[in-house]
Amino acid sequence: GRVCLQGTKLFITAIWTLVSSGLRCYKCSDYTGRCENVQECTYEDSCISLHERGGKTVRQCTRYTDCDISRLTQMFPSISSFTYRCCNSNLCNSGSGVAVATPVVALMGSLLSACWSWM
């Protein structure tokens, strides 16, 4: 009933805040693969994870239009051989395979379950 409606409004507000806020990416350049620094990006950006073959990994915001091999070669002239991945969801350049959406899906499932039990 009423609690379910209030919970649904709260959930929608939380999702709207997540969607409307700017993109966030991990920002670091290291050899360990561990990265905890987070950077706020502009609306034109995507996240990039660029891995130097046999070397360091660079994670940061970058313009979406710069996510191609020729542009990245110009941007990182000291790195001769690399692989890269650009993505456009929050903290998607972590390098881990865990989806960022998992907590949202779990919260939604809990909310729907609670609402169902009130009916």
TrEMBL record:
SUPFAM superfamilies tied to this protein: Snake toxin-like
Signal in keyword set: yes
Q: Which compartment or compartments is the protein found in?
A: Membrane
Where does the signal peptide begin and end? 1-22
Domain named UPAR/Ly6 is located at 23-101
| Protein's name according to its UniProt entry | MAC-inhibitory protein
**What's the protein's topology in the membrane?**
Lipid-anchor; GPI-anchor
Where does the record place a coiled coil? none
The entry describes its oligomerization and partners as:
Interacts with T-cell surface antigen CD2.
GO CC annotations on file:
side of membrane
Q: Which organism is it from?
A: Nothobranchius furzeri
Q: Which InterPro entries match?
A: CD59 (IPR056949), LY6_UPA_recep-like (IPR016054), Snake_toxin-like_sf (IPR045860)
Q: Which gene encodes it?
A: cd59b
Q: Look up the domain of life of the source.
A: Eukaryota
Q: Which keywords belong to this entry?
A: Disulfide bond, Glycoprotein, GPI-anchor, Lipoprotein, Membrane, Signal
